[in-house]
Design goal:
single chain; 141 residues; mainly alpha; two-stranded antiparallel sheet; 6 helices; 50% helix; 6% strand; elongated
Length: 141
């Protein structure tokens, strides 16, 4: 349901959220988020374009979040790297069976629930969740 690019963006943004408001270099972020070094700039360019991050050149530069982690939903991140985010199924022909239409309605409803959950989950929720089974320190440190 989530593309590799979306997963990479979510990983990178979670690491930046954990380090907020500090910058992370491309090398640090690539390693911590397990995103290919050469692919990271493409993702970060889109996140920068949509106002979720800023980038700064130089010795103390790198990438940092602009809004706080509480203000960025997982859906915001996905939409930033995927223009025209939509999980709806295509329109039916007039001769589509009622069974197929019912299946598609069920799938659309399910996708809508997932989208709502992504919209209601902030980046901060990822590492502030007290129900997490692990107490390990995130690799994003």
């Amino acid at each position: 349901m989530i593309s590799q690019t979306e997963a990479y963006a979510l990983r990178a943004m979670t690491c930046l959220a954990y380090r907020f408001p500090d910058y992370m270099t491309r090398d640090q972020l690539s390693q911590a988020a397990d995103v290919p070094h050469a692919y990271l700039p493409k993702i970060m360019l889109e996140l920068n374009r949509t106002g979720l991050i800023r980038s700064q050149r130089g010795q103390n530069g790198g990438y940092a979040l602009i809004p706080s982690p509480n203000e960025i939903s997982l859906l915001d991140v996905i939409k930033s790297v995927k223009a025209g985010f939509q999980r709806e199924l295509s329109q039916h022909r007039n001769d589509t069976s009622s069974e197929i239409r019912q299946l598609d309605q069920h799938l659309n409803h399910t996708f809508s629930l997932v989208e709502t959950s992504l919209e209601q989950t902030s980046l901060a929720d990822i590492f502030n969740n007290t129900n997490q089974p692990s107490t390990e320190v995130p690799d994003c440190v």
